[in-house]
Amino acid sequence: MAYTRKNVTALTRSEKRRFVDALLAVKRRGEYDEFVRMHIDYYTADGERGLRAAHMTPSFLPWHRRFLLDLENALRRVDDSVTVPYWDWTRDRSPSGPPWTDDLLGGNGRRPDRLVTTGPFAFAEGNWTLRENVTDENYLTRDLGRSRDPIDLPTESDLEGALKDPVYDAAPWDSTATKGFRNKLEGWGSGRGTVSWRNHNRVHRWVGGAMVGGASVNDPVFWLHHAFIDLQWSRWQQRHRKHRYLPAKPPGRNNAQYRRIVARHERMPPWNVTPDSLESHERIYRYA
Asked: Helices in the chain by DSSP H: which ranges?
């Protein structure tokens, strides 16, 4: 029977506590840091050699769907009542509102060093030491809204700009693609600075701190953000029922993307699954 992922604003006090407790348990077991390492390993940019499976690529959405499912399964092995909530950043836009409350993710980082001092993931609580991709800082940091160079979260209009495109993805199948739902949602734009960060990417920048870069999984808000991104893929599918994941076939040898992207029926590492097998989630979970 399918379980339900809820809007973070709809969580009861008990559901918040159970979600946090399950995350902390997965962290204590060492499993959580494995998710951080995996995301770092598969954060391959356009300019790098080899296969791109997680970012700047058509498989951005199915890759993160499976990644999110793996984390959710780890949480449910601790407490089978737990599911990953989603954060609708088009509606809940305040740095002091959900999900930034003391009983869930905690709030913003303090001004000098962006250290998060509130909530269950604050360094002082002793339960959330960062171990992957750390240098001098082994604590959770945030800079909600970017105090020195402020930016806003994406709007409903920004999201609609992606959802209305009926084509899933288009050549050249990377961060420079100007057509297609995938890149408009992932959010790689032309130019530099704030104008080049849209939707998914802009949210990472708005949160700041640990949420910037390949090790963004170090901040638990990563999962709530990607649950909302996953919901947008579902909404796009419902709106454009005749359209599916692209490319359907892998690029040929003379194509610059040969062996650099995952086609619909190809294996998507590190799992033995295909994008095709992840296009539907209704038998596993649904969104409220």
From this structure: 13-28, 31-41, 60-78, 156-163, 181-186, 199-207, 221-239
